[in-house]
Specification:
Blueprint lengths: L1 E4 L8 E7 L2 E6 L5 E2 L3 E4 H14 L1
Antiparallel strand pairs: 1-5, 2-3, 3-4
């Protein structure tokens, strides 16, 4: 099952705040990111992806 996560901090606390013809706009409750881009990732791959994201920062 795929889940949506914040592309900035990797948080699962991301919610659609607006929608329109071009798609949804999201907000991350943890870092404040707002935008249309989110990462859709399989639950099984999330931990490894998050580890790589943290390494890059």
């Amino acid at each position: 099952m795929k889940m949506k996560v914040c592309p900035n901090c990797g948080s699962k606390n991301i919610y659609a705040i607006d929608g329109g013809v071009l798609g949804d706009k999201y907000r991350c409750e943890d870092c404040g990111y707002e935008g249309m881009l989110v990462v859709e990732i399989e639950k099984e791959e999330y931990d490894a992806w998050l580890k790589e994201l943290k390494k890059e920062k």
